[in-house]
Amino acid sequence: MVPSSSPSAATATRPAFARWMGTTNQITRTFLSAGAIPGLINVAGGLPDPSLFPTDRLAAFARRAVAEHPDEVLGYGPIEGLAPLRDAIARRLGSPALPLTRANVLVTTAGMQGLDLIGKVLLDEGGLIAGQSPTYLGALDAWRPRSPSFRNLVLDEPGFDPERAFAGAQFAYAVPNFSNPTGRLVDLATRRALVAAAHRTGTWLVEDDPYGTLHYDGAALPRLIELSAQTAPGEPYAGPVIYMGTLSKEIAPGLRIGWIVAAPEMIEALTLAKQGSDLCTSGVTQRIALAAMETGLLEEIRPAIVALYRERRDALCAALSAHLSDCFTWEVPVGGMFVWALAKDPDLDTDALLPHALAAGICFSPSSVFDARGANRRGMRINFTLNPPETLDEAMRRLAAAVAAYRAS
Ligand code: PMP
């Protein structure tokens, strides 16, 4: 047969992408690649300072993992994760009041996979999520393919009633320690109220905790999973909280190691979902994580990380005071990686400000991306962990120039 001279005439129309693809956001991609733009200061991402990565120790752990456990780490491993790592995670989080066994633990390819699996297991098409607002944009990204509806929970609003808020939801979601994006710590009374509502309404309550160890002032509060333990003697935890941890902020995000701790029935369901996702998390990085836990590396490096980030938080707040106090308000966060700044002028639109900021050489995260409906265009999330104090000062100077350009436009 003679080929058609016009290939387009013989080619069917390309099939469309799935409908949810039209609702994606590009901001995460923008700030993960912002490092490649010469001169741009990136305060948009939740990025750790790479100078804190314990590279020599991690390289030694990696070499030992491959040399000493080649079959285990280079073959396919169990979907749930390597048994000694699951045991180490159970020991790390567990206590007499929170009895955990390996059956309570699933190793995940970092926190993002945990969010994805929770959506796969709990969320029907169009289902309702009762989520802390504003909320982590990665969680919105993970659940978007199911086109969920999202009930915004403003946890510190007077009269907040979690039982009413959870009604009809397929699960509830909160970041109680130094929320992303606001950096706020959920107080003890609200933690207790969330847990009581989860028990009373039978709602799964997702506790996402990547920042719990980045605590700069004051004492830590009990985790939701600790408050929710009502376990019969000798039985593993069986409560409603689905706790999520990660090594991304404690060591390095490139390890892509996280975990979910929950009732065994939930771990079983998530394991089935992970089977259809990536079969197993890399054995090499699991062995690195295990060595980091067994040798005490995490506790060893924590004081230096906390000291550096505390200094940078103070530097960012000082820079905000110096350059932007006439147009923004903010709270000093007691932990985490972010300052949440709100414009004093209710008409200032941070989506519209962003192009001016990029032109001035600074990239921030506008508040709209932390809302399922893209509402709240008056704020921004500013990261303080990636850049040194003098760069943070320059970043806020540029942001002030961007605000002036925006107002003049
Ligand atoms: N949850 C929250 C609240 C986060 O801020 C992040 C990272 N920015 C994650 C989960 C996921 O992080 P990772 O996949 O690196 O563990």
Automatic annotation (TrEMBL):
Any Gene Ontology biological process: alpha-amino acid metabolic process
Record keyword Translocase present: no
Keywords assigned by UniProt, alphabetized: Aminotransferase, Pyridoxal phosphate, Transferase
SUPFAM superfamilies: PLP-dependent transferases
Statement: the UniProt record of this protein carries the keyword 4Fe-4S: no
Domain of life: Bacteria
Pfam families the UniProt entry points to: Aminotran_1_2 (PF00155)
UniProt domain Aminotransferase class I/classII large: residue ranges: 67-399
Membrane-spanning segments: none
Co-factor(s): pyridoxal 5'-phosphate
GO molecular function, one term: pyridoxal phosphate binding
Protein name (record): 8-amino-7-oxononanoate synthase
UniProt source species: Methylobacterium terricola
